[in-house]
Design goal:
The chain is of the alpha+beta class and 182 residues long. The chain has one domain: OmpA-like domain (60s Ribosomal Protein L30, Chain: A, 2-Layer Sandwich). Helix content is 44%, strand content 16%. It is built from 6 helices and 4 strands. It starts with a helix and ends with a strand.
Length: 182
């Protein structure tokens, strides 16, 4: 569990670092103290469950003010052991993103990659991250949404929406949750 928490933190920092921009002038930095996080199951899965945390992350990453978050869970699904977007998954993404782009709203997208519980936890974590990145890449290529207006990370197998004992339940757990922050 501690390894998963550390991996989530490191990969989040890497994604934030990749979306930064270069500057010709001096860069201003802010100093802050990292809060101490208790190592409980709730603390580990909290990034994948709490819309208030999604809203706070978006404001921290963009320095903008947002007023609410809406979660779309279960529409963007994946085949077993895959992060390739199907035609159905692309349609589901389009249904969420196209109206936002057309309305020219200020919004931020959080993409949470999930897996079923089949396989090793570390492998599932990477697969969830690859799924979030696939959705992020599609949105960037299809709509030109700047990468700094998106954040993608993995929840791995930690937040199932269905029972993993049955094939149908495992299929429902292979997904990316889209959180729209406006």
């Amino acid at each position: 569990m501690r390894l998963t928490l550390v991996a989530i933190g490191v990969l989040s920092m890497v994604l934030v670092g990749l979306t930064g921009c270069a500057s010709k002038g001096p860069v201003q930095t802010e100093t802050f103290e990292q809060p101490v996080v208790e190592e409980t199951a709730e603390a580990i899965i909290e990034p994948c469950t709490n819309l208030e945390m999604s809203l706070a992350r978006a404001e921290e990453l963009t320095h903008d003010t947002y007023y609410g978050a809406t979660q779309y869970d279960g529409a963007v699904q994946f085949a077993f052991d895959s992060y390739k977007l199907s035609a159905e998954a692309k349609k589901a993404i389009d249904a969420v993103v196209l109206p936002l782009v057309e309305a020219d709203k200020n919004f931020f997208l959080e993409l949470q990659g999930h897996t079923d519980a089949f396989g090793e936890e570390a492998y599932n974590f990477q697969l969830g991250l690859n799924r979030a990145r696939a959705v992020m890449g599609y949105i960037y290529q299809e709509y030109g949404l700047p990468l700094q207006r998106m954040n993608g990370f993995s929840c791995g197998e930690l937040k199932p929406v269905a029972v993993n004992d049955l094939a149908q339940g495992r299929a429902e757990n292979r997904r990316v949750t889209l959180v729209v922050i406006e």
